[in-house]
Amino acid sequence: MKHKNDKKGIGTVGFFHRSDNKEAISWAKKISSWIRIHYPKIKITDSKPQALIALGGDGSILAAARKYQNNSSTHGPIIVGLNLGRVGFLASVREPKKFLLNLKKFFDGKYVVSERIMIRAVVKRGGGIVFETNALNEVVIQNLLGISEIDVKLENHPLQHVKGTGVMIATATGSTAYNLSAHGPIVMPQMKCFIINEILDHNIPTPSIVVDSDRKISMRVVFFRNRGILSLSNKKTVDMVLVSDGEKIFPLKVGDVVFARRSSQCVRFAELEEHYFFKSLQEKFAFK
Questions:
Q1: Chain centroid, CA 128 distance in Å
Q2: pLDDT in tens for each of the 288 residues of the chain?
Q3: Full set of structural domains in the chain with CATH
Q4: 274 partner at 20 to 30 Å CA-CA among 35, 90, 129, 248?
């Protein structure tokens, strides 16, 4: 969903980048000085900024979205992604030479806001909730080494029985991330949908399924063999895990049910380039 910009303008702005990214650090200093000269009324802050300038690749922009997501409201700051990676599917501006030009457009109010849905995933064990998470790209249930069996239902209707590595639920935003590597479809990022994608199923492969994000998906862990592959910080070993956006990891047991549905929260990105998403696809896949 796209919305016109807030006519009141941006009053506060923050920065996000990896601490070891020297190029991003240099750009943050340059942009900060530029803002102080050209937009002296805008305050640079780390505390609840209205806009967040994220410098780096898609991984850094995703990390920025997670860090600044406000759990007490439906959305956090407007994210302006400045790409210092390879392609930049999440970036508002893909080329460094265009950073300042497009930031001027942003601070002058010449942008639209693209709202991206998130996934709310809940793990139930023995009737109680043992884990909850929000994900912008995807949640994945997977066995780290070996075969697992997972029953997938949509609104309690049997959909898939996966006997393989695992199952992924991706958003439209995440369709160009892990989902793409797992041969799932690319979906326009503003679409309010989920992609259900099996991972290395040993049965006859089931096509990826795109469903409305208002539908409730459940995934029940039916079986996996205990090998003790991954050692967690608490020194416990696990084989079956739920992974949220490649960052949050929770160990699963046989009988656990993971429920996934649309989160009440969303992430807002500033769009400054017309057809930016299709330009990214063109660069990535050499479309003509």
A1: 27
A2: 566 555 468 999 999 999 999 999 999 999 999 999 999 999 999 888 999 999 999 999 999 988 887 544 556 899 999 999 877 788 999 899 999 999 999 999 999 999 999 999 999 999 899 999 999 999 999 998 889 999 999 999 999 999 999 999 999 999 999 999 999 999 998 899 999 999 998 887 788 999 999 999 999 999 998 887 766 666 678 889 999 999 899 999 999 999 999 999 899 999 997 777 777 787 777 666
A3: 2-111+272-285 (3.40.50.10330), 118-265 (2.60.200.30)
A4: 35
